[in-house]
Amino acid sequence: MNNFEFKNPTKIIFGKDTIKNIANEIPTNAKVLLLYGGGSIKKNGIYDQVTTALANVDFIEFGGIPANPEYALLMDALKVIKDEKITYLLAVGGGSVIDGTKFLSAAALYEGETPWDILTKNIRTEKGMPFGTVLTLPATGSEMNSGAVITRKETKEKLAMGGPGLFPVFSILDPQVISSIPQRQLANGLMDAFTHVLEQYMTYPVEALLQDRFAESILQTIIEVAPKILKDPTDYKAASNFMWSCTMALNGLIQKGVPTDWAVHAMGHELTALFGIDHARTLAIIAPSHYEFNFDAKKEKLAQYGERVWNITEGTLEEKSKAAIKKTVAFFHEIGIDTKLSDYTKDYEGTAEKIAKRFTDRGWLGLGEHQSLSPDKVEEIVKMAY
Ligand code: NZQ
Ligand code: ZN
To answer: What's the domain of life for this entry (predicted)?
Structure first.
């Protein structure tokens, strides 16, 4: 096992009817900006629950943050924060609203020339404006981690940021919010969380027995709840296990002491930036080709995953690993997610070269757990995903 440090300061308030607890978590003298997305919270009653809970809190609101939070719109929110002397942010939404809020938390206290530099110059945020979240869509883990991904339409870029100052102070996880989530977003949530685990697990063995079993148990739980939650999002048993699995998949715990990959996400983000494909679906496009391409480097873990998660007991190590990739693709299909770029766009020619060039220009010359995935290899993987 590798050396590590672990600190996660986010307070989780989990369970039925917990949204009413918001006010206990926000300082009484705070001036709050309530941030939300395109309006789902107004239809499903979450907005009412939140504003009722904020009855004695001084707050104003900013809605309209789109899926893949957009830089230009967030700059409008930043102006509101400055003009209204906001001291505390409250995100009510999925990964996009929470990530947008993290960007604002960083940008509000940023003293450099333009907040865009936070994204392009990899500036870590040591201290941000404090914020809490009410999670409405289990998927990203953003409610309990310190990372964010921001999109800029103007330049078709999608870039990550983060730092120890960007953990939410608290996050409220009421699994009942899942009942209004459309099928497409439920599938996205399952897919995203599943891939988060794979990115931190499908590398090479380092005798980290507990981390491996944490990861495998999250994968098994997602596989078990997937058909139930897709069939009936009001099934509280399935919803609560789905929600907690997504949070645990990316709150930092399972990646401690082990190598991590994250190349699937790096390539996937480009597909969202170029084609607007949902984040989770970009992962389903890239992951199978990535595991085929890097088969030799990953085959020990692929076989272990095949045995422990998919009960593949027959065959050589190579055969088990191959079967594990097949099972994974079949699972993506079962939850209704296509796995080829051509399923999403007819305009895919030249994409691989474009992505490889972008990575070269950014100096991303070696991705993956061995830092060996050079832009020419990225190009091959994306081509395999056509
Ligand atoms: O905008 P509204 O109207 O609220 O509708 C949203 C949105 O259209 C809807 N929705 C959310 N909760 C709902 C609901 N509809 C009905 N009932 C509810 N309870 O769902 C749609 C998608 O929401 P979004 O927040 O975009 O989804 P998700 O949580 O999947 O977030 C995706 C974003 O997170 C980033 C992605 O790149 C993408 O930009 N990620 C963030 C990560 C992180 N911070 O750690 C890691 C991830 O790998 C990912 O990159
Ligand atoms: Zn993701």
So the answer is: Bacteria
Residue 114 CA to ligand 1 center (angstroms) comes to: 26
Q: Whose CA is nearest to atom 34 of ligand 1?
A: 95
Query: How many C-beta atoms surround the C-beta of residue 46 within 10 A?
Result: 21
Query: Do residues 204 and 351 share a domain?
Result: yes
Examine the domain organization and report whether 127 and 91 are in the same domain: yes
Q: How many whole angstroms separate alpha carbon 178 and alpha carbon 225?
A: 13
pTM, full prediction = 0.97
Same domain, 130 and 67: yes
Establish whether residue 68 lines the binding site of ligand 1, counting it when its CB lies within 6 angstroms of any ligand atom.
yes
Give CA separation, 81 vs 114, 129, 334, 343, in Å.
16, 10, 44, 41
Q: How far apart are CA 280 and CA 261, in angstroms?
A: 17
Report pLDDT digits (tens) over 125-162: 999 999 999 999 999 999 999 999 999 999 999 999 99
Domain limits for position 159: 11-176
Beta bridge partners of 12: 171
Q: Which two tokens stand for residue 323?
A: 């079967």
ipTM: 0.99
Same-domain check for residues 144 and 209:
no
Structure-block tokens of residue 231: 């069939």
